[in-house]
Amino acid sequence: MSRILLGVAGGIAAYKACQLVRLFAKAGHEVRVVPTENALQFVGKATWEALSGHPVHASVFEDIPSVPHVHLGTQADLIVVAPATADLLARAAGGRADDLLTNVLLMAACPVVLAPAMHTQMWIHAATRHSVELLRSRGAVVIEPAAGRLAGSDSGPGRMPEPEDIAATAFALLQDPGLAASCGSLDLSGKRVIVSAGGTREAIDPVRFLANSSSGKMGVSLARAAKIRGADVTLIGANLQVEIPAGVEHVAVRSTAELADAAFSLAGMADVVIMAAAVADFTPSATADSKIKKNGSKGLCLELVQTTDVLRELSANRPPGQIIVGFAAETASSEDELVELGTAKLTRKGCQLLVVNDVGGGKTFGSDSNSVWILGAEGVLNRVSSSKDVVAHRILDALKEV
Ligand code: CTP
Asked: Is 246 in the pocket of ligand 1 (CB under 6 A)?
């Protein structure tokens, strides 16, 4: 259990922060909420106290004997401010201490995540750009706002990122506080990243298919991480069992053939292509037009033919400078054997990075965590055992080593 302090500034998105308290508490964390006086105009103290189970103060002059402006900031393992308004960003960047939340931010010794929400004009204003740059230069993770409908009739960048995406970043930072530099760096800004995720389904007849156990979580974590780091992300999702992160373009596919079509048509423009999908190696040589009946037979023989190796084709036609990342789900008797299998696959597939994981005994599939080796042409670049969101960031870190 970690201690998360949720700061809430005075914007209409304050109502969405209620969902954040729930997500943090559901994950077993202790949550303390510090709203600004203006935030209380949108959502009252009673709501924050009921959701967090703790008393809530907005001013340094409440509960003076407990010195809340000191202990709340120093005791937190993570501070998340959502929504962070233009005013809050300016006050935090300027080092002001004119309410409890800004005092807490000055006392903080833990990672700080800010999730901005404001009108587009305010977000792109030079004053706000300056505040954001200053905060980022000091190590704060300022998540880019989503684009969409805002409080008035206007729309554009300025919407608070979805609570699920903020929570995913928060949990990754709690697991690995060293990630703050990667999450906050926007190192993929201006880059186009394609991620394939999920598991393909090969139709046998109109109601049956051959499938695999992939949920799509690893690929979705990669898409979310790349988005947070500033990339323009397209997710080719094969039968995903998880939500698509906000701001990520989604191309839904079912079979290997559909995935191959999508990947080949999108990859030409991409700076990075990550093939995290579990792609079928074989597909029925023909799909029956109508449901196959038993008709008294004791068995059924299916003839399977090999599918297109999408990763190999992409590598063979790779534009100059593009980085292609492959995945390998292997079963091996030792770590050395796993790395050997991965290294051979990296060479065979012609990709620049290969992420190998051990799937023996049903490990990994559907799980929220993963244990991987990240391989490059020179050998093992990193070994990560953590949540899929942390693993995703470490894979993106490895792009710099190609
Ligand atoms: N892959 C692909 N197209 C396929 C099969 C796999 O693009 N038809 C990609 C996967 O997305 C993954 C990588 O290739 O990134 C490795 O998949 P894997 O099934 O382990 O590779 P194979 O070549 O099928 O190796 P093996 O013979 O060990 O199954």
From this structure: no
Note the pLDDT of residue 69: 79
The β-bridge relationship of strands 141-142 and 112-116 is parallel
Instruction: Tell me the CA distances in angstroms from 34 to 116, 375, 392, one per residue in order.
Output: 16, 43, 31
Whether 307 is in the pocket of ligand 1, judged by its Cβ within 6 Å, is yes
Per residue in 163-180, pLDDT (tens digit) is 999 999 999 999 999 999
328 alpha carbon – ligand 1 mean position (Å): 7
Cα gap 185→197, rounded to integer Å: 25
Strand order in the sheet with 353-358: 249-253, 232-238, 192-198, 272-275, 323-330, 353-358, 369-376, 379-387
CA gap 230, 187 in Å, rounded: 7
Q: Distance between CA atoms of 32 and 4, rounded to whole angstroms?
A: 6
For residue 279 and ligand 1, the question of a CB distance below 6 A is answered with yes
Q: Residue 140 in 3-state DSSP?
A: coil
pLDDT tens per residue, range 97-121:
999 999 999 999 999 999 999 999 9
Q: Which candidate in 212, 239, 357, 370 is catalytic?
A: 212
CA distance 58 to 36: 5
Number of Cβ within 10 Å of residue 191's Cβ equals 17
Phi-psi region at 344: left, alpha or beta (left = phi > 0; alpha = psi -120 to 50): alpha
Catalytic residue list contains 212: yes
Summarize pLDDT for 251-306 with one digit per residue, the tens: 999 999 999 999 999 999 999 999 999 999 999 999 999 999 998 889 999 999 99
CA quadruple 276, 361, 375, 314: dihedral, nearest 10: -30
The label of the residue with tokens 């998540």 reads 143
Question: Could you tell which of 281, 312, 318, 352 is best to mutate to test the pocket of ligand 1, judged by most ligand atoms within 8 Å of the CB?
Answer: 281
CA of 396 from ligand 1 middle (Å) equals 20
d(CA 183, CA 173): 9
Measured in Å, residue 281 CA sits from the centre of ligand 1 at 7
pLDDT class of 360 with cuts at 50, 70, 90: confident
If you take atom 29 of ligand 1, which residue's CA is the nearest one?
A: 281
Domains in the chain, please, with CATH?
3-183 (3.40.50.1950), 192-401 (3.40.50.10300)
